[in-house]
Specification:
Layout (H helix, E strand, L loop, with lengths): L4 H4 L8 E4 L2 E4 L7 H14 L16 E6 L2 E5 L2 E5 L1 E2 L4 E2 L5 H13 L9 E7 L5 E4 L11 E7 L2 E5 L9 E5 L4 E4 L8 E3 L15 E7 L3
Antiparallel strand pairs: 1-2, 2-13, 3-8, 4-5, 6-7, 8-15, 9-14, 10-13, 10-15, 11-12, 11-14
The protein binds N-[(3-hydroxypyridin-2-yl)carbonyl]glycine (MD6) and fe (iii) ion (FE).
């Protein structure tokens, strides 16, 4: 312990926490850029509005979604897939903002995935009670590439399971500014989020949580 250690303690980023093999939680990783990220989300949503998509089974998803980048993730009665166009506007998705590309690549590098090239950024908006049931991310062509996830706004419980839907998940509180990077051995593990709590809020967003996930699609 040097005399200056405590002066710098609050400025140094938290050490990455391993949540499973190949999966890392980077607490506070985007705290410094959080307000810029929230502005960017609003800009994207002005061109590609948030919408509640329908699953192949006919249920409306409780999280509202938008996308930017070369590909957006869509679901309807026909199935889950990536699309180069927004089905709502029939226009290409808004381009991936440089700030988002840079942050996603930097988070991946810190977690040990130095060559990550994000092609899609899916934006999820959770309001009170919205959730994401346990699922695998398997609509991408390349499971060698990781996924980078950024959390903004109200906190939520993230559930991280195993290769079987029935594997008991571990729970991680994802807070404003946190990043999760996920690949390697756990790339196809089941995961989801618990319903956004009635009292969950953040000064910048109120009772709303945003999640950005970046993927290599092709
Ligand atoms: C969410 N996240 O945090 C939902 N998928 O709102 C995901 O489904 C997810 O955070 C793959 C990798 C990271 C994630
Ligand atoms: Fe997922």
């Amino acid at each position: 312990m040097s005399p200056t250690d405590d002066l710098f303690a609050d400025l140094s980023p938290a050490a990455p926490e391993q949540i499973a093999e190949g999966a890392w939680l980077l607490r506070g990783f985007v705290l410094g850029e959080a307000e810029q990220l929230l502005d960017t989300i609003q800009q994207v949503a002005s061109q590609a509005p948030f919408r509640h998509q329908v699953t192949p089974g006919g249920y409306s998803m409780s999280a509202a979604m938008s996308s930017c980048g070369d590909w957006g993730w869509v679901t309807d009665r026909q199935g889950y897939r990536y699309s180069a166009k927004d089905p709502l506007t029939d226009q290409p998705w808004p381009a991936l903002p440089a700030l988002l590309h840079e942050i996603a690549a930097r988070a991946a590098t810190v977690a040990g995935y130095p060559d990550f090239e994000p092609q899609a950024c899916l934006i999820n908006r959770y309001e009170t009670g919205a959730r994401m049931a346990l699922h695998q991310d398997r609509d991408e062509a390349d499971f060698d590439a990781p996924i980078v996830s950024l959390s903004l706004g109200a906190p939520i419980s993230f559930l991280f399971g195993g290769m079987q839907r029935s594997d008991k998940p571990s729970r991680w509180l994802l807070q404003h500014g946190d990043a999760v990077v996920w690949g390697g051995k756990s790339r196809l593990h089941f995961h989801g989020v618990a319903p956004l709590g009635k009292r969950a809020e953040h000064p910048l967003t109120g009772a709303v949580r945003y999640n950005l996930t970046f993927r290599k699609v092709t």
